[in-house]
Specification:
Elements lengths: L2 E6 L8 H16 L4 E6 L10 H11 L6 H18 L3 E7 L7 H10 L6 E4 L2 E4 L5 E7 L17 H10 L4 E7 L7 H16 L3
């Protein structure tokens, strides 16, 4: 039995295109894998720990074997809880809308919290190495515009490249996606239908 962590990075519900694509993926996945468990992490309903002065000081004191205060230990423990939740999954589903050509700030907050040396990546003689190898991810993207590869508009897309880079950095290289692009354009319904169909197809073998 596998555990999927479903990370919702959109505050919208009924009109969230990324969530609609992710839901279509999970509907098929659950039909084919009824014994697997899906854990939802709604980033706009979750209070993530702040990486403030106390937390960061606790991080470095603990990591380097220096003395730390109870307050620092408590603050860093909150970060570790989020990391362990993330690492407890075998597979990941992300619903990611494009905000200002990149990611919603809540998702970036999660990324900053869990991307920590010794927890999700290591640094050795060969440089950086991701520690979450052997896991899979599906990413449902949505964007108001169309940023097709090979077009001038591609240069404005910091959403997909960043997700691909970050997932690979922590060791997750088996990544598939479906994108509902052009959601502010005249072809939005057709484009969304294609993304949903693609998500359902990918879920067959995920």
């Amino acid at each position: 039995m596998s555990t999927i962590l479903f990370i919702k990075a959109s505050p919208r519900t009924g009109r969230a295109h990324s969530l609609a694509v992710a839901d279509a993926f999970l509907e098929v996945y659950k039909q084919r894998n009824p014994d697997d468990r899906v854990v939802e992490l709604d980033l706009f309903k979750t209070s993530l720990p702040d990486l403030d002065a106390v937390t960061v000081q606790g991080k470095y004191n603990i990591m380097h074997g220096r003395e730390y205060t109870p307050e620092e230990r408590s603050a860093w423990s909150e970060v570790e809880k989020v990391i362990e939740l993330f690492k407890s999954a075998d597979k990941y589903v992300f619903a990611v809308p494009m905000w200002n050509f990149s990611l919603p700030y809540k998702l970036k907050h999660l990324i900053d919290v869990i991307t920590q040396p010794g927890y999700t990546f290591s640094v050795g003689d060969k440089g950086y190495e991701g520690m979450l190898k052997g896991r899979k991810a599906f990413v449902a993207y949505a964007s108001g515009g169309v940023y097709s590869p090979g077009t001038p508009a591609e240069a404005f897309n910091f959403q997909t490249p960043y997700m691909d880079f970050w997932l690979g950095f922590i060791g997750i290289t088996d990544v598939v996606s479906a994108a509902a692009a052009g959601m502010l354009g005249p072809d939005k319904d057709a484009n969304k239908a294609k993304a949903v169909a693609r998500a359902r197809e990918l879920a067959q073998e995920f």
